[in-house]
Design brief:
mainly beta; five-stranded antiparallel beta sheet
Length: 76
């Protein structure tokens, strides 16, 4: 339908918005740092991933941005 939505579970958040008249769709995923292998999670660190799609005459444009934020007290 092209409608937006938001859901969140245990510190994770997904937000989506669509603008059907402009053929635009965007999504944001936010989650706390997670352990990876032998590397522990860093308290106070969060990751955000933005995705965007736009359909145009020449095809589909795709954009992605990933960034990390840390609280002032973290050791990141």
């Amino acid at each position: 339908e092209g409608s937006g939505f938001h859901c969140g579970v245990a510190g994770n958040s997904i937000e989506c918005v669509a603008i059907p008249n402009d053929d635009v769709w965007a999504l944001r995923l936010t989650h706390p740092d997670m352990p990876h292998g032998d590397v522990p999670a860093i308290p106070g660190r969060h990751w955000t991933t933005d995705l965007a799609l736009r359909r145009g005459e020449a095809g589909i444009a795709f954009g992605v941005r990933v960034f990390c934020t840390s609280q002032a007290y973290s050791e990141a």
